Amino acid sequence: MLDSLKSLLPGKVSTTPADLEAHGKDESYPLQRPPLAVVYAENLTDVQATLAWARENRVPVIPFGAGTSLEGQLIPQGPALSLDLSRMNRILQIAPEDFLAVVEPGVTRKALNEALKGTGLFFPVDPGADASLGGMAATNASGTTTVRYGGMRPNVLALQVVLASGEVLELGRAVRKTSAGYDLKDLFIGSEGTLGIITRLTLRLHPLPEHVHTLRVFFKNLEAAAQAAYSVMASGLPVARLELVDARGIAAINRYLERSYPERPALFVEFHSSSREALQAESRLALELMQGAGTLSVDAAQTQEERTAQWEARHQAYWALVNLYPGKAYLSTDTAVPISKMPALVAYASRLLGEMNLQGSILGHVGDGNFHTLVVFEPGEAKAEAFSERLVEHTLALGGTCTGEHGVGLRKKKFLPKEHGPALSWMRQIKGLFDPEGLLNPGKIFD
Amino acid sequence: MLDSLKSLLPGKVSTTPADLEAHGKDESYPLQRPPLAVVYAENLTDVQATLAWARENRVPVIPFGAGTSLEGQLIPQGPALSLDLSRMNRILQIAPEDFLAVVEPGVTRKALNEALKGTGLFFPVDPGADASLGGMAATNASGTTTVRYGGMRPNVLALQVVLASGEVLELGRAVRKTSAGYDLKDLFIGSEGTLGIITRLTLRLHPLPEHVHTLRVFFKNLEAAAQAAYSVMASGLPVARLELVDARGIAAINRYLERSYPERPALFVEFHSSSREALQAESRLALELMQGAGTLSVDAAQTQEERTAQWEARHQAYWALVNLYPGKAYLSTDTAVPISKMPALVAYASRLLGEMNLQGSILGHVGDGNFHTLVVFEPGEAKAEAFSERLVEHTLALGGTCTGEHGVGLRKKKFLPKEHGPALSWMRQIKGLFDPEGLLNPGKIFD
């Protein structure tokens, strides 16, 4: 069967064990399953040819960007092709005068920002990993700067997508505003490859801030740090990043990256401004608010290098923690709640770890009410999943969501009936409309 | 037939000529047609009862908020009920700690902002008219502050909607971020009552700016004003409003509101900041940039009253212009283009008015690349529509959209095939999925 695929796409189909293994897993989901083959698409025609073959042979297709998803989005649930888009990595246009870039889906966020050097602009969505922009749109990624610049939806203006049928659609327009009909662009963003394959993105760029001020603030306990984060947000100050790392996370960073931060719960905070005076005023007010919640010490990054080092530390916290526990399994929750409920949910998660006798670390985007609990457990043990269920249950009761940014994939499917109620069946019906044969990433988001 | 409706909803169904007339028109569309009856829904149950009756009697339903739409969204295309939601005007919750408000669809934006007094928060979307928030979501409204705060999509976090079947869906969550499945909330925003009836909205609130600086800047000609607006946007300065009014618009405002502004093309500009120093630095830089494009004079509002007067003038420009030409008909275009293309499109629109020997005025949200050309013509004359077609043609060729904020309604339907290509048929299919009998606002967006 694969011979016909190979002759359809000569030199672009791989079945080497290394390729199959690399495309049968993601960065966090515990199970793996290799695809039948990996197709390395180089252009739109390759994507359409792959889909034509998939329709004829009734083999599902899973789009693959950089492989950095966390919830099992890339893992076949049966015989399937992995459609690797990493060779579609051309930056098609940079239009600084319009704050726009047009890219193929395999361009990574770092590659784009590298290409933007000298324009005074950047693409702000920053999930930590050097994810592909197509994958980031597919999972509606966000990250440390979302509190200021938003996630993928406001920063992707238009998409080209290929449906299971091979039909090519252009969704959205390269404008700041449009009210011309249904918003299909945002429907495809976050659909995790289940509605279509993203083959081109038009992205919104932002001016690099002229002035940046970055702080590390350490607190006596986790509750104080969470409360301080809430106080800063409640003040309406225009923070650009506001990240919580608990004491265990700081300890892991110290060990993994050879840092010597105080091993206490910390907030990593950043302000962006076009004016130095505004920046100083904002930072000063933020510090006063945080001191009210009980700071132990404050440390400001003085140079660009120090800033980069601070955010590298935050981004590596996940890997630092994983590294602390070799041989263990780990699970990361991704709850988000209305901002005022965040301190209570942080406290709940912390208490629940203790109650359930689990090791774990709490960190994340508290400025958005979104944080992760990285739970460490013995492979095969059910306790971490039970923790996740209890935390999501509590989150939903507070009006929150089971996933702020990682998406649903395989792991969060079970929470959607409760989160969405009857709306979930309409999501399924939309899936059935666009992909009646269930060829596109089946078994993700819903069964 | 209507007797059964009246007995189903006693005291809530009107067929008085005044009610029928008021519900058979909007603020701009030239044709009118009264509905069969007006139902004044007071709660969710009334909405469901109306839809049940409509299904049984195969009579379409058109949701009606404040009646301020501009493209014919409210006008029956055959026998239909108008479902007036203005009595569903309760503010259900204000949660300043979460920057949230929960409202019924008939609450107007001004009523909400009135209720928010004292909280230090406001709801920023400002289309000029005192529209209902349900209607604003239905048409994906935006306005003068969108350049800073975004339009309805980022400012509506969740919706309750009732489908044609009577089924109630809760879409979105009251959180800043979620990646839990398909984005149905944004699908319903901008669907103009064709997919469901909005019965509740969860809105995102913003801190009132501590410092506001408002300028009126007058230019030697329209091209200079448009170019100045582009220079300000290209600099990345965080403007909160950036509005163009041409000389004819200023003259109309002077006459209608008894002002004495210089009758020259003007930019109305506003900055919001938490710091006075930042505000001064930003305004200064903006002024320098505008002076480079050729300013004649600059005028800063010194007090809150002056600011309010300035924005009232901008908001009343449409009515001021209409008032200049009693007995004439008028049509407002709503094109938006990538920001660098805006000066050229403004020049094109101005030239085209002259070429076609039409009177008109150019004004709007140039900071978003979105502006309106208000064309005045003799009732029955086809020239204004021909103007609109040529302008939209040119706009689409520049990568723009036929409607930045007014929506499609009846008037923009003909442009969608060209703007969306094959994606339009998928919008139709989604319509067919949610409303297979075509009960909800038929004939709007597409036939």
Automatic annotation (TrEMBL), chains A, B:
Residues 1-27 are annotated as: Disordered. Coiled coil: none annotated. Keywords: FAD, Flavoprotein, Oxidoreductase, Transit peptide. InterPro entries: FAD-bd_oxidored_4_C, FAD-bd_PCMH, FAD-bd_PCMH-like_sf, FAD-bd_PCMH_sub2, FAD-linked_Oxase-like_C, Oxid_FAD_bind_N, Vanillyl_alc_oxidase_C-sub2. Its EC number is 1.1.2.4. GO terms for molecular function: D-lactate dehydrogenase (cytochrome) activity; D-lactate dehydrogenase (NAD+) activity; FAD binding. Belongs to the FAD-binding oxidoreductase/transferase type 4 family. This is D-lactate dehydrogenase (cytochrome). It comes from Meiothermus luteus.
